[in-house]
């Protein structure tokens, strides 16, 4: 796996259980040669994370530090089998990048059918760009349905480096390999992220890179190599979101 140019799922001290400041994370990104760093603090529901005023005030943060472009956003919790999200609609406008994922602190694992419905409904939400760590065997998913929905609704599935390092999660490697194979079949791009909670881990894909290489995943489907393509992906998603919002009125 060659050198990546973006890592868009990371956390600072604002998330409550991470240990780097925004400046420290951006400096680390610059030292590692990233073009884009995404900082996506945990949304309410995770103990110790920031209040909503934090997200509303992100406009004061420069979007370039140490020569690195910053995308500031949130990792939003999927709350139930209907895919309800732990973030008010009024505050999505403050987010450069929107990630949604299942966390055990906010979600009760169900059957494969129930979990799949939860994730697919989050994918269908035009406000969401990325599904974080859809890989834990304790929360089984029908990956064919998930990848088909991701393809149809322009949502990226994440290969999460931290998942591969966390012993509490089950069958992570097997599950990632399964959805990567389907993504190749459907020509569906994915994104690999560090999920860094400490500055030294920014751009760290030590486990994910092994799996991507092992699977022979094609470079043209890995968004981490293409900063301009990723920004165009976000721009198009915001455009589709505006259409969706106008259709509701």
Please provide a written account of the structure.
- The protein has 249 residues and is α/β, with parallel strands linked by helices.
- The chain is 34% helix and 15% strand.
- Strand 6 (130-132), helix 4 (143-152) and strand 7 (156-160) form a beta-alpha-beta unit.
- Helix 3 runs parallel beside helix 4 (143-152) and helix 4 crosses helix 5.
Secondary structure tally, helices: 7
Q: Low-confidence runs (pLDDT<50, min 5 residues)?
A: none
Helicity level: 25-40%
Structural class: alpha/beta
Spatial separation of the terminal alpha carbons:
46 Å
- Cα Rg: 17 Å
Mean pLDDT reading: 97
Task: Walk me through the topology.
Elements: E1 6-7, H1 22-31, E2 36-42, H2 52-56, E3 64-65, E4 68-77, E5 97-101, H3 112-124, E6 130-132, H4 143-152, E7 156-160, H5 172-186, E8 190-193, H6 206-215, H7 227-247
Parallel strand pairs: 1-2, 2-4, 4-5, 5-6, 6-7, 7-8
Antiparallel strand pairs: 3-4
Helix pairs in contact: 3-4, 4-5
Q: Gist?
A:
The protein is α/β, with parallel strands linked by helices.
């Amino acid at each position: 796996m060659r050198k990546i140019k973006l890592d868009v799922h990371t956390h600072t001290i604002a998330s409550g259980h991470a240990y780097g400041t925004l400046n420290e994370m951006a400096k680390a990104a610059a030292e590692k040669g990233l073009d884009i760093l995404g900082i996506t603090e945990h949304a309410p529901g995770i103990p110790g994370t920031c209040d909503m005023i934090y997200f509303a005030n992100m406009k004061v943060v420069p979007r370039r530090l140490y020569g690195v472009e910053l995308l500031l956003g949130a990792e939003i919790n999927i709350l139930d089998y209907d895919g309800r999200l732990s973030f008010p609609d009024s505050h999505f406008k403050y987010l450069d990048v929107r990630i949604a994922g299942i966390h055990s602190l906010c979600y009760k694992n169900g059957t494969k059918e129930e979990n799949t419905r939860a994730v697919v409904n989050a994918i269908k939400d035009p406000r969401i760009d990325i599904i974080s760590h859809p890989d834990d065997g304790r929360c089984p998913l029908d990956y064919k349905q998930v990848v088909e929905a991701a393809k149809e609704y322009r949502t990226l599935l994440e290969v999460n480096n931290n998942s591969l390092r966390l012993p509490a999660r089950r069958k992570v490697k097997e599950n990632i390999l399964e959805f990567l194979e389907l993504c190749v079949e459907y020509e569906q791009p994915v994104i690999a992220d560090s999920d860094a909670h400490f500055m030294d881990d920014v751009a760290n894909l030590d486990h994910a890179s092994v799996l991507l290489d092992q699977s022979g995943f094609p470079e043209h489907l890995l968004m981490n190599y293409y900063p301009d393509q990723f920004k165009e992906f976000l721009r198009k998603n915001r455009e589709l979101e505006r259409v969706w919002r106008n259709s509701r009125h």
